[in-house]
Amino acid sequence: MTLIEFIQQAVKASAKSIESTIFLLGEGCTIPFIARYRKDRTGNLDEVVIEKIAKYSELYEGIVKRKESILNAIEEQGKLTDELKTKISNSYDLTEIEDLYLPYKKTRKTKADTARENGLEPLAKVIMSQNANDITSIAEKYINDKVGSEEDAIQGASDIIAEWINENMYLRKSLRRKFQRNSIISTKVVKTKKEEEGAQKFEQYFDWSEPTYKIPAHRLLAILRAEKEGYIKFGVGIEREEAISFITDNVVKGANQCSQIVEKAAADSYKRLLEPALANEALAEAKEKADLNSIGVFADNLTQLLLGSPLGEKRILAIDPGYKTGCKVVCLDEQGDLLYNETIYPHAPQKETTMAMKKIRSMVNAYNIEAIAIGNGTASRETEFFIKKIAFDKPVQVFVVNEAGASIYSASKIAREEFPSYDVTVRGAVSIGRRLADPLAELVKIDAKSIGVGQYQHDVDQTLLKKELDSVVMKCVNSVGVNLNTASKSLLSYVSGIGEKMADNIVQYRSENGPFESRTALKRVPRLGEKAFQQAAAFVRVKNSTNPLDDSAVHPEAYGVVEKIAKDMKVSIGDMISNKELIARIDTKQYITGEVGILALQDILKELEKPGLDPRRSAKVFEFDPNVKQITDLNIGMVLPGIVNNITNFGCFVDVGIKESGLVHISQLKEGFVSDVNEVVKLHQHVQVKVTDVDLGKKRIQLSMIL
After folding, report:
1. Which positions ≥6 away from 182 have C-beta within 8 Å?
2. Which residue range or ranges hold the S1 motif domain (predicted)?
3. Bridge partners, 340 (sequence order)
């Protein structure tokens, strides 16, 4: 099977599109670049399909390498037959390949290995043929200094037979299917741990069972965590007697003494070898599915969070609220630079409300503040009420900002580099303010796992999680584009073709030489070659450049085409931008070249209509119910405004303005069946919810969007 054929089994795309994509990836092109600027080469494949092609191409190479390794290992043993070589060479199923390799795998010494060393394999063959009537007298011939009796000889032969049954491809495949379709995962509480405080969150799994193939991702990951923490034990299995009967039906041929030995060996083979291995396989498969599912949920949530509504370049006063330690206040300019910081004490125990109001008014006037951002942690609601009581001289918008991960940023190396003279409290407040201005630019500085928009993110495959989340951040950054002269090192590092080291070089060059006057000036950065420039140039924006296309998503390689269009239309490029009437008259077919095809031209014209348009919606002010400040203020039946702050497979969590978020179960999202929570709600969506249950003891709130 060729690489293209292998990929086509999983990806719906033409052979030509796949081949072109693989070629571009091999040239070092990034996925965002290929998806946006090589549409004519790939047949307009989107990022999702290109990612799949990259993934299956890597998988194919891994399978080829594994097969080579296995073939070499068997050949070294002198056991590689033409038939076996053909079977391994023609297979692209890793499980099947490993099954074929199983009899030749060098592992720890088995009972069967010992029996073979003791010369008992010929006896095992006699027993397995099930033709001999007096096996005891035959076994007597195999007694030696290592085999003390006929019983020992028969037992050794049985160990070899058990191993043969374990290595039987048909039996193994058939039983594997039974595990995939019929296995049950069941749990039992560890009685000595049952009363411990931590055990209560896993209470539903103290005695639980359900089909392995049906178990939802969040439930399996919860069971695995409970087992890891020692509160429960669990197992995966199918009906044992049925499995053993299936094996004996296939290996027992008669009713003589040999057949009885084979039957006993079959039961031993299943209990000792097949059952543990296949149970582990079934669990690993279920865990892999759960990981992919959970990582997918996290990736969707992270995408929505990163592409959250920006307020834009405004002067912002940001507050990290607190009681005893006060509220940390910072004033930021349009670029998010720190102008001033102060601590106020409007709440108990100090309750210096009047003084705090005067200070806030003074800062708003002195620094020409246009908006106020309040972190949604401790004392958030009280701070919001306090701010809204202040009579400002001009309208000032007030926003409550999700501060998840701000404390991680404030203690990070990045924060220390940005603000070496300030403590973590000031850095945290700066992060809150910058999140309001541009969530994407600020959140890229934080490890995505710390943002708190996933389910059981610490229990999934961490390598896979990091790879997926890095991919999400890269997609988001490149879909929006970055300002080359204001972007942080963290933000630049996710731009197509740049990376961490080159981002460092760009920031250093910028600080030493001043702002970039054009995209072309990027080439002057040390060690930034033509390939990096090609991959990165169109994803960075340079405002006030002599070439207006530098502040658009038009790639520099297409500037010549745009210049020709402008010349033919007898206008300047600047006159053509945003002129829909003029753009509508352009005949794209006239301008197709070897490098710029029809799809690229269509994108160019769209971009000329709205150059540099931010795909994100603008931030909107939201107000919680002023009467709800803590969980005890909630009553069943109460309808409240809320913000979706996390999405899972089983529903979404909604912030109604108190410390505890409430759960809207998937069944309560809307009337009728819902298969995907993301079809109904999005992260940060403003919703109306009804309180259906409040458990003060466990601090759990159940909500419904069916009003």
Report:
1. 211, 238, 239
2. 637-706
3. 331
- 148-184 pLDDT per residue, tens: 999 999 999 999 999 999 999 999 999 999 999 999 9
Measured in degrees and rounded to the nearest 5, phi and psi for residue 67 equal -65, -40
pLDDT of amino acid 452: 66
Last residue in a domain, options 52, 70, 104: 104
Beta-strand ranges (E) seen in 26-162 are: none
- DSSP state for residue 678 in the 8-state scheme: G
Specify the number of domains making up the chain: 2
Give the global pTM. Answer: 0.85
Give the count of beta carbons closer than 10 Å to the beta carbon of residue 670: 15
- Exposure of 319 by Cβ count < 10 A (0-12 exposed, 13-18 middle, 19+ buried)? buried
- Residues near 601 by beta carbon (within 8 Å), at least 6 away in sequence: 561, 588, 591, 592
Count CA atoms within 13 Å of residue 137 on its CB side: 3
CA-CA distances (angstroms) from residue 584 to 408, 574, 606?
Answer: 49, 16, 10
* Pairwise CA distance, residues 386 & 372, whole Å: 12
Gap between the Cα atoms of 640 and 289, Å rounded:
36
475: its two tokens = 């997609």
3-class secondary structure per residue, 433-493: HHHHHCHHHHHCCCCHHHCCCCCCCCCCCHHHHHHHHHHHHHHHHHHHCEECCCCCHHHHC
C-beta atoms surrounding 292 within 10 Å: 15
DSSP 3-state percent helix, strand, coil across the chain (nearest 5): 55, 10, 35
Residue 104 Cα distances to 73, 256, 686, angstroms: 8, 31, 60
Please, which residues have CB within 8 angstroms of residue 276's CB and are 6 or more apart in sequence?
none
For 690, the domain range is 631-704
- CATH code, 683: 2.40.50.140
